[in-house]
Amino acid sequence: SGTPHWLFGDQLGPHFVDPARGGPHRDAPLVMIEARSVFRRRRFHRAKAHLVLSAMRHRAAELGDRVRYVRADTYRQGLREAVGGGPVTVHHPTSHAALALVHALPSVRVLPARGFLVTHDDFRNWADDRGTKHLRQEDFYRWVRQTHDLLMEGDRPVGGRWNLDHDNRQPPPKGAPDLGVPAPYRPRESDIDAEVRSDLDRWEREGDAEFVGEDGPRGFPATRREALAALRRFVEHRLITFGAHEDAVLAGDATMSHSLLSSSLNLGLLDPAECVERAEARWRSGDVPLNSAEGFVRQIAGWREFVWHVYWYFGTQYRENNALRHHERLPDWFTELSPDATEANCLSHVLEQVRTTGWTHHIPRLMILGSFALQRGWEPRAVTDWFHRSFVDGYDWVMVPNVVGMSQYADGGRMTTKPYTSGGAYIDRMSDLCGPCRFKPSVRVGEDACPFTAGYWNLLHRHRDRFERNARMTQAVRGLDRLRDLDELLEQERERRD
Ligand code: FAD
């Protein structure tokens, strides 16, 4: 009963200390370790370093005497300082590296993972039953809906369809500068934030850590209370418009109707079950349309769960995949988040957003940043590392499948049916970013050639053999045969690269 329990920095909500759900005993002392080496290993966005430290220190302040909060160089040292060699419990951590560490420490007993709907065993059974090395999110999502009774009427999906994606791909409203929805919740900073900021300043000054990006006023929740306020505001005022324009991008409206809950979920401040239950309740009471409720439930019960389990199921080698053999280095302007270095308005705009906030919604990540990296042939591992460092919600488990699998197609299609990339026409249709751009989405060769349009054809050409064998890509690849200026385009792209 008195065995101390260790909380990692992404295990901060009540569901990580709940004896009724397999957590530590009510009286068990708690241990938290702030390991400086984490910041020395990687050059994180400062807003992310700030958020994580702020959340940990706020949690420690809430727990008061019950927690021993240790500042140490490494986790090992911190644990030694907190409990000597004595026994400790910990919930299953969220990265392969952290799991290997806790398994290597003989005194640590690992309890089941928290913060996800589906257990490791249930996922393994589901995936093994498929009998294939290709897993599909859509199949998984339907199974989760059934087994967790989410938006179901008996054994059928409410409204008769599993997936309302079709309704959720509308371009942005024409001519509107923003979506006109109530703003998302933003927290107010506390003394703890001031202390974090001054620590980060000192570490930078003393050469003990280096960061990128701007650490403006903290934009994301650091406490359970703040996270609940953010969830409430989203569900009550913003969920209603979540669906229709989910994939659209507006220069003047970075957040649109997105929930901004990813960092809170990933810090463990919110449990996914409470998020999807509240969304469903809003639909059941007739307050939000089904395409919005279903779209949101799919993001959390479908995508987020799927990505978590794929990370574990595909194992430690998954991150090394490089099916397209991409080996180019990321340019410095990209890693330094220098938006002025590129003339492509969409890319510059999104990089600026990342620089100032550490966040953009899924379409800029997938169809602008990720798609650009894929087209340029950047090394998937380095791209994964960049995303991990630059986003407030980035953690190993969520970045590896999203970048290696989803965005860079480096796993050759084990978790997606085709590469996610496009020419400028898609970006033009789904955003207002092309209007002011000096490039033209329809032009592929010459001064005005859109880097995405040219990059798209270049990528298809380079991987023609592989893509031709994919039924969902055949038509796109055949388009190459209609390009009379293909040789010119390839020459242009070769020069651009050098
Ligand atoms: P909403 O649009 O409001 O969606 C609701 C929630 O669904 C999110 O909060 C998130 O928890 C969950 N979700 C949706 N899609 C995914 C997904 N593919 N993977 C995991 N969760 C998902 N999400 C992260 O949490 N951390 C990451 O490091 C991350 N990296 C990404 C990298 C790439 C290249 C891509 C394409 C996507 C990535 N995502 C990541 C997924 C998604 O873009 C973000 O979760 C989302 O944009 C966060 O904003 P939001 O909370 O407003 O999301």
Assembly of the depicted chains: single chain
What is the C-alpha radius of gyration, as a whole number of Å? 23 Å
Name of the CATH class of the largest domain: Mainly Alpha
- Unreliably modeled segments: none
Explain how this protein is built.
The structure is a single chain. The chain is mainly alpha-helical and about 500 residues long. The chain has 3 domains: about 5-110, Rossmann fold (3-Layer(aba) Sandwich), CATH 3.40.50; about 120-185 and about 220-315, Serine Threonine Protein Phosphatase 5, Tetratricopeptide repeat, CATH 1.25.40.80; about 320-495, DNA Cyclobutane Dipyrimidine Photolyase, subunit A, domain 3 (Orthogonal Bundle), CATH 1.10.579. It has 21 helices and 7 strands. The chain has helices at about 35-40, 45-65, 75-85, 95-105, 120-130, 135-145, 190-205, 225-240, 260-265, 270-285, 290-315, 330-335, 345-355, 360-375, 380-390, 395-405, 425-430, 450-460, 465-470, 475-480, 485-495, and strands at about 5, 30-35, 65-70, 90, 110, 150-155, 155. The strands form 2 sheets. It has a 5-stranded parallel beta sheet with strand order 3-2-1-4-5, sandwiched between helices. A hairpin with a 2-residue loop joins strand 6 (about 150-155) and strand 7. Helix 13 crosses helix 14 (about 360-375), helix 15 packs across helix 16 (about 395-405) and helix 18 packs across helix 21. The longest helix has 24 residues, at about 290-315. The mean pLDDT is about 95. The site of flavin-adenine dinucleotide (FAD) has 27 residues, from helix 9, helix 11, helix 14 and helix 16.
